[in-house]
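Field: sequence (string)
Field: structure_tokens (string)

Example rows 1 and 2, in order.
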Amino acid sequence: MDSDHRENGDSTHNHVSKKPKLSAFISEEEIRREFSHHQHGIARINNGSFGSCPTSIIAAQKEWQLRFLQQPDDFYFNHLRKGLLESRTVVKELINADYVDEVSLIDNATTAAAIVLQQIGRAFAQGKFQKGDAVVMLHCAFQSVKKSIQAYVTQSGGSVIEVQLTFPLNSKEEIVSEFRKGLEKGKSNGRHVRLAIIDHITSMPCVVVPVAELVKICRQEGVDQVFVDAAHAIGSVPVDVKEIGADFYVSNLHKWFFCPPSVAFLYCRNSPLSSEVHHPVVSHEYGNGLAIESSWIGTRDYSSQLVIPSVLEFVNRFEDGIEGIMTRNHDNVVQMGEMLAESWGTNLGAPPDMCASMIMVGLPSRLCITSEKDTERLRSYLRVHHGIEVPLHYQAPTDVECAPRDKDGLITGYARISHQVYNSFDDYFKFRDAINQLVEQRRTCKMLFTE
């Protein structure tokens, strides 16, 4: 990196500890107070969708907002850039990046997809890539990523290969095998794979992907660029961007790292490609590198980005810091997933070692889930009548002979349960009992009303 970039943020000597330094860890009562603003009486087992922000971080955010409102000019000229650099330095240390300039703070993973795919689209439009060259992705990629490909890549002449994964999954080897097939298809007829998009943790259905292994395969197969969509990763699984080896890696900080919405980091590995990557909102920092472009995209509320150091202090109040939180969340969600599957006589969607802080649990076949509309109806019913918030998934059987079954028939519905520090086992017992009650009453999804 040149000297200008180092002045913009190479904080080699500013080590940020991931480990707690407090003599007394946060108590259960303090945890309850930190999340006392959550609506009472709701079994909130869907942290994966929107995350959760503690009261102390909400207070820190309000302080930043007030500082701006009190004296905007002083805030902009003397505090904003410095505060964002401190936040980026925290992220740099957490993910083991080489340079802080490799870390940009943006709104969310959707913004990152636009950043990465816009530069791919420009390369097609400028003739750097040939018409028909491919982007390879998992079929269960997040919908906004698929829409970004449609908007920026296919309209410019690129083709898309979707790697079909079976579900439920039994091993990571199944993912690796199908991914290799996708790359082979992308390279057929003399084409090149210009970009591979790999989820670190798929959203729905959820499973932890062997991302480092897939990136290594991409390098062996001559894939130009690799973008890891890790929306659920930071705070849920260990993240080491150098070990993973991708060109781009994004993760939301408001899902599993307790930041207020919305904030994410986008890691862009330092390379000649860096100058081709730009924020989709062009402001007067355009051309100064993505990290600096992202630090000012016009007048807006930057407070969710500025509280990241305060969030690190919060997680360090827990035993073993963020590593301890991840371990306990994983252990608890697996325990609760196994409890639900045993009670309902169903199955898990993947082995425990392929789950992080979320796990898929089969729903009883007697609910007669035959479409996404059925899962939407059941989800609304659980919210309105039982105070349970949990996402549900319809899985159409592709091979009836091999599809999972319970004692009454094919399992075609799954619940994605999450565990975060505010959850208690009672949340999952409440969910268990609500489903068991429906089965005992012989009520199917089509019989449910939410009003």
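Row 2 begins here:
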Amino acid sequence: MTSKFREHLSINVVDPDLEKSIASSTRDRFTKLLFDLRVPEPELAEWPPLHVHKRKCDCKKKRNRRSCCLLILLIVVLLFLIGNVIFLNVRVLSMNTPAPSNTNTTLSANAQQCLSQYTLNAPSSPSSYPCSTCLPTLQTVPSTYLSSNPQNAQQILNAIQFCGLRGIFDTANSQGQAALGWVNDVKFCAWNGVICDGSGRVANLQLTFPGVPATLPNELGALTGLESLQVIGGNSIPAGALASSFTNLTSLSNLHIEATSITQLPDTLFSSLTAITTLTLIRNTNMGSSLPSTLTQLPLQNLVINSQTLTNPLPSLSSSPALQASLKLLDLSSTSLTGPIPNTISSFSSLTQLLLANNNLQPPFPIMFPPSLQILNLQNNTGLSGTVPGSLCNSTLLTSCELGSTGLSGCGSCSFS
């Protein structure tokens, strides 16, 4: 210790303030001594410089992308506005369009009146029902109304069919009307010669002299459910042309016209009557010698034409693909046919009966006949000559072969007497 330190220790402390001052000074000196004796801190090495790479700003691309988005949004808004304008215009036009006079769910006033008259008045006074005005009115009732009102639809159908049949009755003379005995009531399904199906439609109509009309009237076309029509007249009646409404009979499958003075059938008739499978024409002296060309389009199964003059239709009939597949019975007896039987006759793959008797057929005789043939009648064709082919004579299906009064020979299976 130094002498000053010893002196300092030897001093007698009397004054408290002096004593505090001495203690503080001693603490400060001791603290300074410890601070001087501290371990020196190592020097920190200098940090290397930071290499910061500057990124290029994509501000231009972002601006372009933002512009594209705004343009697309603008286009969408414009399309939306244009669509709204178009929709409003269409709606305004539709609101300004006048409604049709006859809606699909209601009857017109005239149709309602005709229906009421038929339901209320016609049963007690069938001859007074105004068919001349009500028939065309009821025929134009929309099908949507008929399907949604089945009870009224049946009454409308009944009124239409009643007027169709009454048109036939009104066209007949007094003798014909007496024979028919119709129009005493409206229950036409029970009338003479009328047969209805299960739904109340006239399906079969047979008119036999004297109960026939003077002509086949236009009202006949109202019987749209007709499947079979047979008219056997008195040679002079019915007469005239078929009514234009005859083409409405699209369900007709059997047409039989006999002993009438009906004139030539329209060439396009069978473009409409495509359901016919049996056609019979007998003794219709004013019908002409040619058949409608549309006949060859039908899937006919039975074709019978007798006792009226024909220009030989065998070449055209046997060349028809439809008839080749469908025809089963071909009867052209007593039609004054001339010329040969064409070799194409063998093309009828379903033909079972070929009846060509009482004509003026000529050779050459065909070398083949349909293999399905069961009955062949060529009697009274005195100009026909030649040898019957062996394929026909040896057929196991052939049950009748009449070749009497012809110049044919060479087949034991056939009768030549």
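free_text_note (row 2): The longest strand covers residues 202-208.
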